[in-house]
Amino acid sequence: MFPVTLGHFVPQYAAQEHITRQRPGDFQLISGGVADMGRLIMNVTDERYSRFLSGWKTLYFMTVEHAEKYADHYEDFKVGAGFHAIRYDRPVGHPDRHKTFLGHNTKPTRETEKICAEHRALEQAKGAGYDEIIGIVTVGKPRLPEREIEELVTPTLHPCIKCQRELAMHPLMRRRTLVITCKFETHPHPIEYQCHTFGQILRLHGQSGKIR
Q: What is the average pLDDT across 21-47?
């Protein structure tokens, strides 16, 4: 899936100051479809994925801050999503080739229909004219599945079944899209996360969809 050689790319994210707060043990891979994130990051040369993998931890902090500020849930169940998108009509090195989009969930009352963080971020990327979602970082507290939907209980919060189905049908999504799901903690040590491809997420949760 990923060409193997060493690649160096500078992440194009706004909150660069967060990098200085990171220590080697700040993030801990607890399980997932990608067994060795460090090796993956060092060995990916495809410019699209290198940009995402070199900056996803900064995107994590941006997503947490966004969810803290904007998420609105009657049970204080805050979720954030950061989508890294690419435009193929922009050459490598162009400032608009890569862009991140942030989303948050809302369900202010029990009776209100929920709007998921992933939906908001995805629609922003589509509206801005981007072609593909390269990577996703989601933050949220793991919870038991809702009674009306049978969902796999996971150590980090995966996209809900509704989101999985929407993403699977969306033209910007691919099976190869990397999905890093993290526990939502403002001052954690370490930050626990999982990493899968979107195709692996769909298989884990027994979903199928028309996705490339």
A: 61
